Amino acid sequence: MNEDRALDPARVVLAVWEVEAGKCGVGGVTDNRAVAHREMIRALDDFSQGRGRVRLAWLVPGSAYRYGETVVTAHRNDRAFVAFAGDAWETTF
Fold first, then answer.
1. How many CB atoms lie within 10 A of CB 54?
2. How many domains does the chain have?
């Protein structure tokens, strides 16, 4: 790891994943996009319907994160699963 990044947590790019399924939800944070994508899909597998996304984020002093682009969005409806590159997070479910 670059020493500058180790000294300045705000420069470390994180991958935040989240899943919503009705009133249920789960999420996590990692420094690896592939792991975040895999965990989001694994969480969506636990629900018959839901949506998930992986977003880039940086730590911000006095706050949790500053979010960047959405890397991937996924939707599950019964047995169908669809993933999109980028942001396809819908406001209604």
1. 27
2. 1
Specify if 93 maps to a domain: no
Helices assigned H by DSSP within the chain: 3-7, 33-44
Does residue 64 sit within a domain?
yes
User: 11 by DSSP, 3-state: which?
Assistant: helix
Report yes or no on whether pTM surpasses 0.85: no
Structure tokens at 53: 């996304």
Contact 40, 74 (CB under 8 A): yes
For 13-33, b/e burial (b = at least 16 CB within 10 A) is: ebbbbbbbbeeeebbeebeeb
Predicted confidence at residue 1, as pLDDT, reads: 47
